[in-house]
Amino acid sequence: MSLKSKDLTGIKELDTEDIELILDTAAGFKDVLGRDIKKVPALRGKTAVNLFYEPSTRTRTSFELAAKRLSTDVVNFSVSTSSVVKGESLRDTALTIQALGAALIIVRHPCSGAPHFLARHLEASVINAGDGTDEHPTQALLDLLTMREKRGGIKGLEVAIVGDILHSRVAKSNIYALLKLGAGVRLIGPPTLVPSCMEELGVRIFSDMDAGLEDVDIIMMLRIQMERQGKGFFPSKEEYFKNWGLTARRLMLARKNAVVMHPGPMNRGVEIASDVADGRRSAILEQVTNGLAVRMAVLYLLSGVKG
Amino acid sequence: MRVLIAEGRVIDPSQGIDGVRDVVIEDGKIKEVRERGKREGGKKAGGSRNVIAAEGMLVLPGLVDMHVHLREPGFEYKETIKTGTAAALRGGITSVCCMPNTNPVNDNSSVTEFIRKRAMQEGACSVFPVGAITKGQRGEELAEFTMMYEAGCMAFSDDGRPVTDGMIMRRALEYSKILGAPVISHCEDLSLSAGGVMNEGLLSVTLGLKGIPSQAEEIMVARDIALAELTGGRLHIAHVSTARSVEIIRAAKKRGIADITAETCPHYFSITEEAVRNYDTNARVNPPLRRKRDVEAIMEGLRDGTIDAIATDHAPHHMDEKQREFDLAPSGISGLETSIGLSMRLVDDGVLSLMQLVEKMAFNPSAIAGLSKGTLKPGSDADVTIVDTKTEYSVDAARFVSKGKNSPFDSWVLHARPAVTICNGKVHRWE
Amino acid sequence: MAKKLLDKKDIDRMITRMTHEIIERNKGTRSLCLVGIQRGGVYLARRLSAKLKEIERKNVPVGTLDIALYRDDINVRKEQPVVRRTELNCAVDNEKVVLVDDVLFTGRSIRAAMDAIMDFGRPAAIQLAVLVDRGHRELPIKADFVGKNIPTSLSETVRVQFEEEGGEDRVILE
């Protein structure tokens, strides 16, 4: 089995068949992660490069581990901002990496569209680990896997995504994926952070969190980036928590066994109360394990012979 | 030197001609436009005679592009006066007005003289410089209008940037009345467009790119029209891109503010923001590509005369600058060589008649800029564009004459293309 | 043009005989476990286990093993093989693991299966039971328990179908 494209640039470019294939394959890889020897020789001899233009420990480590579990050789290129500004062009860096024999290039970049640009210019497979405010496809895929495990399927689920939707690539990838698989999507947050034009996609928008959480199966909380506070998006973190923070009380407004998710890292007391984050309904740690399995699945499926 | 253009379909709005005629050129001027086959008084003409068989083709006054960036002085790696005018000629354009956002900025007579001299030495077509409105295009102090005018500037603009200070724009419009030269306004509210790289809307949110709302243009269009009304100055609005801008201009013209003219570019009636969907930097342009309803409004604006001219805003860039992250790529489309091909589609779709097309692409721009071009009246300069509309061809940006290969129209199949361009009587034939 | 080589009765007799051979060779069923290779070996392994229970009245654990991640042709295929479930139900260490597959051909699947088993632990021994051995080995692999040897040409294909998949038990040659 194979994905239809040589790259994973975003959920926008995947169809439901591709998404299901990745999730099914990831479920298979969870098995491997449960063994004593958590390594398989599947991608032995291949080289994967982590090309991260933005600092990130979690996602980069997750990809690195996923590659190593498949016996892939991993190289980390952490590009400091100064070399982006005055150094080699993105294209030249990528061509150099390809010349070193990398078959898989995992890229995180502050400019939306950077992975798409690389995918066009390289023969290697490009995997988007987060581009600007565009997408973070593997995050959405691991979120879907988690939801599937908790609820048996995605179709018909009511999912609420809460927070800074405007600047969140995690939110966007999730929105596209959930809509493709037939879930109902609600966006909850201050009007400054939830673009009303997204209603055209088929989602419902709420600024009243209490109203928005009624009948919801999954609550996905987004990280509030504190830098936004200074730019007039919302007055203070206390104000934010009061209106859009997930407390135990608010959790009761959702469906009986509603699941709480968060891509991490969390701002406890700003978007989510500590007791909820650590509570029974939280799937936050499972998301991390699933992240590893999903990334192994993506690396595996993109490694077939090209052309 | 005599040249005879035989049996082409001549379209000349200035003389109301649309029909098969012969055109005679002598010593770099149009001698005569006459019915087929007639000779002067029956006698055989002396001297060498070049005959261009134009049967089945359109014979138009040389096209006039009043908004072009030739990049020289200062940015010769993107384009030079030599390569830019050569590209214009290939596109059937015999007169260009070049914008002052060079380095140094054309805000004084020395730079204007440099450009004119360069153009005379190396230009393949006629070049008319546009002088800056403010010194250094910094928007703070008016530049020396009359001295630039005497050195050869036909109009004034800070294009590339708007004139943010209303008082400065007011003064520019008032001052321009002395010369009767238009002030060409690049309408953009920088506080609203700040950081934006494409049209604002669902697509920009979906692509994760910062958007420029159409209001950033419309607000300044309204402001400049109000200032034109206040001052009685000559205002020309550059690169109109939105439906509401067209409405505002239409209403103003209806109110009788006579000295307002406007132009649009072929990309604003040919493609929408969808061209950006794949992060194609060749589609990054300022003002940005808009939506379908804006495209339709632009076409309607051309049809009913709200928009007077078609200009390319030819903005060549080096490949290295465009082949990168969308956010970091400069805005601009290299448009000289696709202008007539794209604009002819308006005639194909019934939006404009051929006569109207020639008005928009030759007669009106010339009139607005105060040039005496865009006409085949006997005695005028022999600038003629002979267009073949019967052969389909595929746009190949990599083989553009211009140094700028940045075009979102690469691989488009068009069917109008100059077969011959005559500039000041000099004949250039194209394959 | 498919030709039926063996029918339900033939297959049942073979399974009975193989079961007896397994018991005889291993002097009983102690420390024995069966591992069916996905997908063809899984049904056969379960049948063998059922037969072992019938004859020896002992439960021999049955597991499934997916070899997709151990294949040697991952770098030359256009598409990646589907990854299926692996549930050994067997401690592996110091156990006698009987790998079970439907058809033995080049031997590469068995090589992959052995590598996979080794990653789970250190078996006391690995034995191989197949329903059909069609020859054309490319690696030095031999089956310990064979239902039937069927010589074939390289252009032919041998397919084993089990009732559990729908249809009837049979072995066909295409």
Mind sketching the topology for me?
The complex is a heterotrimer of chains A (307), B (431) and C (174).
Chain A: H1 16-34, E1 47-52, H2 58-69, E2 73-78, H3 81-86, H4 90-99, E3 104-109, H5 114-121, E4 125-131, H6 137-151, E5 158-162, H7 169-180, E6 184-188, E7 204-206, H8 209-212, E8 218-221, H9 237-244, H10 248-253, E9 259-261, H11 274-277, H12 284-301
Parallel strand pairs in A: 1-2, 1-3, 3-4, 5-6, 5-8, 6-7, 8-9
Chain B: E1 2-12, E2 17-26, E3 29-34, E4 49-53, E5 58-61, E6 63-68, H1 81-90, E7 93-98, H2 109-122, E8 126-131, H3 145-151, E9 155-157, H4 166-176, E10 183-185, H5 190-193, E11 198-199, H6 202-207, E12 211-212, H7 215-231, E13 235-237, H8 243-255, E14 260-264, H9 292-303, E15 309-310, H10 319-322, H11 339-348, H12 354-369, E16 384-388, E17 393-394, E18 413-414, E19 417-423, E20 426-429
Parallel strand pairs in B: 1-4, 1-5, 6-7, 7-8, 8-9, 9-10, 10-13, 11-12, 13-14, 14-15
Antiparallel strand pairs in B: 1-2, 2-3, 5-16, 16-19, 17-18, 19-20
Helix pairs in contact in B: 2-3, 4-7, 7-8, 8-9
Chain C: E1 3-6, H1 8-25, E2 32-37, H2 40-56, E3 62-65, E4 96-104, H3 108-120, E5 125-133, E6 145-149, E7 158-161, E8 170-173
Parallel strand pairs in C: 2-3, 2-4, 4-5, 5-6
Antiparallel strand pairs in C: 1-8, 7-8
